[in-house]
């Protein structure tokens, strides 16, 4: 699969899982993974998913605007950079966000998220 | 220097150079470096700086809103994620942007930019 198609497939999978079954994201992180969520750093799959599943909203829907990817230069890793909109249930306006992922291949031929940085883009 | 301070120092240096002497950015890239600028991929220091110095505006000023950084997990590299505003000379409104850098240490004890992904955040 070419890198752009792989990045798009990852992004589709990530945000569909986020929007329908947030605890299912645990499979995408490992112990060394780090999430920076609005400036707060959280390490390890369990802690990251605990953060994501306890965000102060129940339902949300991500709409992706752009996906950029580049090889990360090491271990066939890949950098994926996303921009889009986040619609929370009950809120009138969508929030704009940007997020980047550093994906690392697993021995099983899949990828996991080593680095994840998320920011809302305040208007 | 701790990673957050290093990231902030890099960001300060990068955007000051961009705003005052864009061709000076050549020193920050190498042959293997890649820039994704609004979806266009450009490789190599010379090509990247040619792109940046021929953007369709002469003067600009970046104002940084957030800087996040994480160790990239390999070679003591570092991921730096920036959001901010870009004011072009003669334009009434600033443009919001997000940008990420993958910094790799050099044998000389400095860093160069291996990966650079830039996107405007359209309102």
Automatic annotation (TrEMBL), chains A, B:
Keyword Transmembrane helix: no
Keyword line: Cytoplasm, Nucleus, Protein transport, Transport
One Pfam assignment: NTF2
Subcellular location: Cytoplasm; Nucleus; Nucleus envelope
Domain NTF2, residue spans: 6-120
Transmembrane spans: none
Task of the protein: Facilitates protein transport into the nucleus. Interacts with various nucleoporins and with Ran-GDP. Could be part of a multicomponent system of cytosolic factors that assemble at the pore complex during nuclear import.
Quaternary structure and interacting proteins, as annotated: Interacts with RAN1.
Name assigned to this protein: Nuclear transport factor 2B-like
């Amino acid at each position: 699969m070419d890198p752009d198609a792989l990045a798009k497939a990852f992004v589709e999978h990530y945000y569909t899982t986020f929007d329908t079954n947030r605890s299912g994201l645990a499979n995408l992180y490992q112990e060394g993974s780090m999430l920076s969520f609005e400036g707060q750093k959280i390490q390890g799959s369990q802690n990251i998913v605990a953060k994501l599943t306890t965000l102060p909203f129940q339902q949300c829907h991500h709409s992706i605007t752009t996906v950029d990817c580049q090889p990360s230069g090491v271990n066939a890793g890949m950098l994926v950079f996303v921009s889009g909109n986040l619609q929370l249930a009950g809120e009138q306006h969508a929030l704009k966000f940007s997020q980047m992922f550093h994906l690392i291949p697993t021995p099983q031929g899949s990828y996991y998220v080593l680095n994840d940085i998320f920011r809302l883009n305040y208007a």
